[in-house]
Design brief:
The protein is of the alpha/beta class. It is built from eight helices and 28 strands. It folds into four domains: about 160 residues, 3-Layer(aba) Sandwich (Molybdenum Cofactor Biosythetic Enzyme, Chain A), CATH 3.40.980; about 60 residues, Molybdopterin biosynthesis moea protein, domain 2 (Alpha-Beta Complex); about 90 residues, Molybdopterin biosynthesis moeA protein, domain 3; about 80 residues, Beta-clip (Beta Barrel).
């Protein structure tokens, strides 16, 4: 057996970042910037008001400070989008709407709540303001030449909004990965089909498609391929040309020798590696490169397949997608109950439920931990790492991978 770290390092050493591309902004969510994004404009592009109110000059502001109120004539109203440049006549003010360009010489904007309309087109303004109150200055958010999004940033909704605010239409990113998922085996059926003796419904393929979709890649369900060497070879050969990565499950244990294993060895020119990793579940794992596409052979047990995906496949996809952080990030949690195990030379990853209580993360191990208990996996929101030991007691600190399906 090899260590988990050795397996992760081997896989990461065999994959490379995919090419960068200028992608439409509204399709760039979750992608990684391939270079610094520099603003060519100021945000805001002009001084504007942060509130509905009245724009006043320095003289009126000083009078307001001395007397607590000032009475001014209203010259007119400036709406948002009105680009006309104005000046405030002495003894006057402009009613101004949020986001509108402030007149030249505006020292502050008095909120409409602090105004009283008077007869004859005048207004009395009250309140305590300082110079610049309620004004958003030109370039106060972003100035021309600022790096608004640095290289290596995973774009989220706020980044998309910021890039839109500087007028960007396309953004330089590493392109979105395309991953194909297939299952092989005459024993597998899809939901809605009748089962014959010895057959089961294929759950792994659907779990992997869902997990990949949550990870932000473009995933294609390639269906079930029957146990026929020519069909499997044809499916894998085509997938290697169309996708950045291919995922299958089953047929990776030491004693297994099915068509998939032999064909992967053939298509990888003998460079695929069939590993036994010192973890439980998910000990068996296969990896190779087929015509430039990364091939991931995940274990056949449903829980093992998902754990293997989290610990081994997802880090490789993270690197291919341009992410700097690739290995899963664990956090510390206080265990609610104990967990007993025996020394066997492996790290165990058990399913559990994390909660956030009284500013502390707690973790509760679930009772069923067999690798076929997929329903128990669906009740968990974390993997709890248990080193090769006799387990842990209630109240001990443990390392957990929280809500791991969304970290990539």
């Amino acid at each position: 057996m090899i260590s988990l770290y050795e397996a992760q390092e081997f896989v990461l050493s065999k994959v490379e970042r995919k090419r960068a591309i200028a992608t439409p902004l509204d399709k760039a969510l979750g992608l990684v910037t391939s270079g610094d994004v520099v603003s060519m404009v100021n945000i805001p592009p002009f001084d504007n008001t942060a509130v509905d109110g009245f724009a006043i000059d320095t003289e009126s502001l000083e009078e307001l400070a001395r007397r607590g109120s000032v009475t001014l004539s209203v010259e007119g109203t400036i709406a948002a989008g009105d680009g006309k440049l104005r000046e405030i006549p002495r003894g006057s003010t402009y009613r101004i709407m949020t986001g509108a360009r402030t007149p030249e010489g505006t020292a502050a904007v008095v909120m409409v709540e602090d105004s009283i309309d008077l007869d004859g087109g005048a207004v009395e303004l009250r309140g305590a303001l300082s110079h610049g109150s309620n004004i958003r200055r030109k370039g106060s958010d972003v100035s021309t030449g600022d790096v608004v999004v640095p290289e290596g940033t995973v774009l989220n909704a706020s980044h998309i909004g910021t890039l839109a605010s500087i007028g960007l239409v396309r953004v330089p990113v590493y392109r979105r990965l395309r991953v194909g998922v297939l299952s092989t085996g005459d024993e597998l059926k899809d939901g809605g089909e009748s089962l014959e003796e010895g057959q089961i419904y294929d759950s792994n393929r659907h779990s992997l498609v869902a997990a990949l979709s949550q990870s932000g890649v473009e995933v294609v369900d390639l269906g079930i391929i029957r146990d026929d060497a020519d069909l499997i070879r044809d499916a894998l050969s085509k997938a290697a040309k169309e996708f950045d990565a291919i995922a299958t499950s089953g047929g990776v244990s030491v004693g297994d020798f099915d068509f998939t294993k032999a064909i992967v060895q053939e298509l990888s020119q003998g460079n695929a590696r069939w590993m036994q990793i010192a973890i439980r579940p998910a000990k068996p794992f296969a990896f190779g490169v087929l015509d430039g596409a990364a091939f991931f052979g995940l274990p056949g047990n449903p829980v093992s397949a998902l754990v293997s995906f989290e610990l081994l496949m997802k880090p490789a996809l993270a690197k291919m997608a341009g992410k700097d952080r690739q290995l899963p990030k664990f956090v510390k949690a206080r265990s609610v109950s104990g967990y007993k195990r025996s020394l066997d030379g492996k790290i165990h990853f058990i399913r559990g439920v994390v909660s956030f209580e009284d500013d502390e993360i707690t973790a509760l191990p679930l009772p069923k931990q067999s690798s076929h208990n997929l329903n128990e996996m669906s009740q968990s929101n974390c993997l709890i790492e248990v080193p090769d030991s006799e387990g842990f007691e209630a109240g001990d600190l443990v390392r957990v991978l929280v809500n791991s399906s969304v970290w990539i």
